[in-house]
Amino acid sequence: MQPPASDTAASALLEGLDSWREMPAAQQPDWPDPAVLADVRAELAGYPPLVFAGECDQLKERLAAAARGEAFLLQGGDCAETFGEATADRIRNKIKTVLQMAVVLTYGASLPVVKVGRMAGQYSKPRTTPTEIRDGVELPAYRGDAVNDYAFDAAARTPDPHRLLRAYHTSSATLNLLRAFTKGGFADLRQVHEWNRGFVTSPANARYEVLARDIDRAMRFMAACGGDSEALRTVDFYSSHEALLLEYERALTRIDSRTGTPYNVSAHLLWIGERTRQLDGAHVDLMSRVRNPIAVKLGPSATPEEVLALIERLDPAGEPGRLTFVSRMGADRVAEVLPPLVEAVRVAGKPVLWVCDPMHGNTFESGNGYKTRRFDDVMAEVRGFFEVHAGLGTVPGGLHVELTGDDVTECLGGSEQIHDGDLATRYETRCDPRLNHQQSLELAFLVAQMLGER
Ligand code: PEP
Ligand code: MN
Questions:
Q1: From the alpha carbon of 274, which atom of ligand 1 is closest?
Q2: Ligand 2 mean position to 192 CA, how many Å?
Q3: What's the CA gap between 60 and 66, in Å, rounded?
């Protein structure tokens, strides 16, 4: 896109960035004091960018490659990050887990893997109900650390705009560590064994060790041939979160000096959730005006007409890499509801990237009251997603998962066979259940196999 030609064009562009204020905006907190919110907004608007527009463009190119089947997207991290868990150990374990999964996928499928964390900004959550009732007491629902506190008392649950500032600073600290880990030698492929250290021994880890030995041997071979490339020493790791809190996202939207166009500089990739993808809503409008790569979640109620209209709103020019659709249909629905959507996009000739989120359509409450998912359902949805694309001759381009590098017990099954009764052992999520380290690796091995067969 060219810079705006005149001052009038530039001011129209800026004005457009606030059009969403006149539109219905789902899932926004009831901020109690407009004056405090205005102060916070002004402060945020003065902070430096967390990511650079050029990096967003680079990610866009890689997503375009994934849409063509020349790369594969791996996007993973917590359902909801919390301020308290933004510690070196937790962040490192998550990065290691994603790096390990990426190596398994790259090796198994001989495809470059585009690595994106649900990290460094995933501090707000859409909720099914605006309030929560416990023992007859009704309070605002927990909407993520960027909005209110998880503790169940009136003060803690009252939305506090100052939390948006903390969300920015915690994102900044997390990104700093992420950049250090991925550029400072830790992500060097010669460390491929190192990433497996510190995790409990498991069949998935053992399988990973075998693969890591193969990679080691190949690396030594390449070095001996003089092919010791820089590309093996550092990794590009991008950040993403749901663009939910419009005041935050607007304050972090800036005009890029290179192109004179707006970018959201709070993350490389932003996505619009299943609950906020209304065509005439505020979220779609704000995201239509920034030049980052954008993703949209699609649940089982999405229609082909809606999907084509979303393309028209978010990517009218058909720019490769601009738009990703994240399918989250549920294992038992994917074969029936996904094909008409993919087919409509294929017929329209639009270059979108199709990604599978096998988590959000497969959540249920266990007999003992935990929100959970079955590893087998997760796998079944991924398999269904691949089958739909195989049937239509389209590209299954990526995987979007909720995971942690820690040994939590939040999802059922996997080869360590977590049962209902085990959920209580280490159930730590503030929102949706995540695959633990071992389940994440297992998933990567299974998906690598499917990719290899593609
Ligand atoms: C999420 O990604 O955590 C989420 C809430 O997903 P969805 O919008 O698909 O329900
Ligand atoms: Mn979630």
A1: 8
A2: 29
A3: 10
